[in-house]
Amino acid sequence: MVTVVGPGDEFLRLLEAHLDADIHVRGNEITLTGSPSATARAEDVLTQMVTILRTGQGLNPADVTRIISMVDDESIRPADVLTASILSHRGRTIRPKTANQKRYVDAIDNNTVVFGIGPAGTGKTYLAVAKAVQALQNKAVSRIILTRPAIEAGERLGFLPGTLSEKIDPYLRPLYDALHDMLDPNSVPRLLTAGTIEIAPLAYMRGRTLNDAFIILDEAQNTSMEQMKMFLTRMGFGSTMVVTGDITQIDLPGSMKSGLKEVVSILTGIDDIAFCHLTNADIVRHPIVGRIAAAYDRYEAGRPPREADRRHEEKRT
Predict the structure, then answer these.
(1) How far apart are CA 296 and CA 260, in angstroms?
(2) Going by DSSP bridges, is the β-strand pair 240-245/213-217 parallel, antiparallel, or unpaired?
(3) 3-state SS string for 162-195
(4) Which of 56, 107, 171, 176 has its C-alpha lying 20 to 30 A from 201's C-alpha?
(5) β-bridge partners, 214
């Protein structure tokens, strides 16, 4: 019972704050009182918590909050989400944290090309890299290729000091960071040197055919339509592609169309291609990140469209 109510009754206080039913704990019994719908919902939450605890996996306050938020979704069980393991490394297990993240991971398992679209912090890139490492370890692929366009936050490579490799490195650093979370630090340089893992800017993909590889295109909102088409047509036999990006953070100059924004309407409905949309509710960083993202969404929704966007919409209509 201590594991259910949490240390110092922390979980119990969370349940009481978010559920309409009254919860009474005495010994090893929990009694629920309230309306039939409220008690049924509270019973579902407690059942999912007990199911997770019986696997030997612990719970924390964030997990309890996620269970409460997911329990109304009849298409998925919170216990299935929070016990789904992708990788274990240094005693830490990487797994989806929300229903949409679980759908995203399942889509990668079941499709050749997957688009993960959503705001920062929703695990789009991190989970994709975890699935890539898993595929490599299971020998489902022979190499991992990670790429992203070298356009970000208004900067251009020419303004950065150093050689071409040194100029490119800052743009690829998030991919290196994810790899170091999932592999032994000593093995990452060895795999990079051997070409088993390749990290390169998108421009380096032109003219190639990528066979037997797990390929990830990160920050895809900053690709042009031509670059997106070029990347997608690099697909070879035995490969999986994952494209991630946030269409609310496009850094392309002027009125250039985002390849990620346009590809949704071009490829939706094609077999073996999946589009997974994540939202602010799927942000798994510090809770304040979700509130910041939601505040910016409200702010952007209340602003008049930029002149370039307005002309583009008028031309389309």
Answers:
(1) 21
(2) parallel
(3) CCHHHHHHHHHHHHHHHHHHHCCCCHHHHHHHHC
(4) 107
(5) 144, 240
- Taking only the tens place, the pLDDT of each residue in 249-261 is 888 887 889 999 9
Q: CB burial class (10 A; 0-12, 13-18, 19+) of residue 254?
A: exposed
> Model-level pTM?
0.84
Sheet holding 113-117, edge to edge: 197-201, 143-148, 213-217, 240-245, 113-117, 273-277
C-alpha–C-alpha distance, residues 302 and 151, integer Å = 27
| Helical (H) or strand (E) element with 243 | strand 240-245
Nearest-angstrom CA–CA distance, 173 and 105: 23
Contact 118, 211 (CB under 8 A): no
Retrieve residue 182's tokens: 């999932």
* Other CB atoms within 10 A of residue 163 CB: 8
For 133-146, how does the pLDDT look when each residue is reduced to its tens digit (9 = 90+)? Answer: 999 999 999 999 99
SS3 198: strand
